[in-house]
Specification:
The protein contains 16 helices and ten strands. It has 390 residues and is α/β, with parallel strands linked by helices. The longest helix is centred in the N-terminal third of the chain and has 17 residues, at 81-97.
């Protein structure tokens, strides 16, 4: 097992993971010329001095530092000569401070890196590139990619496809994102990743970005609770199924988590066991709790008020002030993945019912919190495109 772990730029994190199989940590400055997978206004600011000191700390510990250049849209800036020079200078800076790996989404960036820095960075292709077949994987390998983080919303549980990719690639290694609760076959994946790229680019005003794509998915999961089971996360107990295919690289999120929560995830996956709410491992928010977890309702009218209230209740970029909306008993999921390992999943959810059955056995809803959240999402759905006079 080899873990790629998000860093929150806390040097103490590196000390605490020293005895675990973390081969790299990944992160980025709050914004740059490429953009990434998180909006600027949801991340803490990391100045260059802190960034450089942290990279040195990571490298001294014998761990690789992977810088995220994974914005999925470059706004055609790659065709601008001045932008190309800025990219070259920025990559030179990353090399100088000790960064020795990159994650990219756009083929142009990979080709640029391999042309001008062929021996300086190992390159991983982001899951945002949506690699869901051997053909796509081979294209990226031929371009020089070292690691491929496959399309987590499509093939994390498609063991037949994963095996074929692993068996037929020559040099590139497959990487699996294990901690994620996105919708299976999410229809928002391209819209969402492009929105995040623009919301984290130094070329744009990112202060007013609202993550409406995320809210869409969260609302669908509340309306159809079995979507939480369909979501292609990977439990610590099930890593061995992927290792049996020849996959040994696993990616753990989130960059804005407290150190103790990141270490908690590393421990769970290293120990291949977790006793508790699966959301603790797979969700990208809500881990920071206030002292008194009690649902209080607020009167909200404007779009911003509704947006901020959802963030308060769910713990998005701030402390969560009430109980989790659902509890997924991780230990009751023992044996769940075998259905997919044995290629019994047809993808025809309407005529199957397997995940719905598992949801009924493993998920407990906090009806009060779920009801309030659905009310807020409906209000936001209306407010986000309300054309009436304000």
């Amino acid at each position: 097992m080899k873990i790629s772990l998000a860093t929150n730029f806390d040097d103490d994190l590196i000390d605490q993971i020293a005895d675990y199989p973390v081969y790299e940590v990944y992160g980025k400055l709050k914004n740059d010329y490429i953009g990434g997978g998180r909006a600027d206004n949801s991340l803490m600011d990391v100045d260059k001095e802190k960034f450089e000191n942290h990279v040195r700390k990571v490298r001294k510990a014998g761990i690789r530092f992977n810088y995220l250049l994974n914005g999925s849209c470059l706004s055609n800036n790659e065709q601008n000569f001045d932008w190309q020079k800025n990219l070259y200078e920025f990559l030179s800076y990353l090399k100088k401070v000790g960064v020795n790996a990159l994650t990219v989404t756009n083929p142009y960036i990979l080709i640029f890196v391999k042309r001008y820095f062929p021996d300086d960075f190992q390159v991983r292709i982001s899951t945002f590139a949506c690699i869901d077949s051997y053909t796509k994987a081979k294209y990226w390998e031929d371009l020089g990619a070292d690691y491929l983080c496959v399309d987590f919303v499509k093939i994390n549980r498609d063991f037949k496809t994963l095996k074929y990719i692993v068996d037929n690639l020559h040099t590139a290694k497959i990487d699996i994102l294990v901690t994620n609760s996105c919708l299976k076959n999410c229809p928002m994946i391209y819209t969402h990743t492009n929105g995040l790229a623009h919301a984290s680019s130094i070329n744009n005003d990112t202060s007013s970005y609202e993550d409406w794509s995320l809210f869409y998915c969260q609302e669908k999961e509340l309306e159809h609770i079995d979507e939480y089971i369909k979501s292609p996360w990977v439990r610590p107990e099930d890593l061995h199924y992927y290792e049996e295919l020849g996959i040994e690289h696993f990616k753990i999120t989130e960059r804005d988590f407290p150190t103790e929560q990141l270490v908690k995830r590393v421990k769970a996956y290293t120990n291949r066991s977790y006793d508790g709410n699966l959301l603790d491992l797979i969700q990208g928010h809500g881990v920071k709790e206030s002292e008194n977890l009690k649902l209080t309702r607020k009167e909200v009218v404007t779009k911003k008020e509704i947006y901020d209230e959802i963030k308060r209740v769910r713990g998005l970029g701030r402390e969560r002030e009430c109980e989790r909306h659902i509890y997924i008993d991780n230990k009751k999921l023992d044996g769940f993945l075998k259905f997919f390992v044995d290629n019994k999943c047809t993808g025809n959810c309407n005529s199957c019912g397997y995940c719905n059955l598992i949801a009924k056995k493993t998920i407990t809803k906090n009806e009060e919190v779920c009801s309030y959240l659905l009310e807020l999402y409906k209000k936001y759905d209306y407010a986000k495109m309300d054309l009436s006079d304000k």
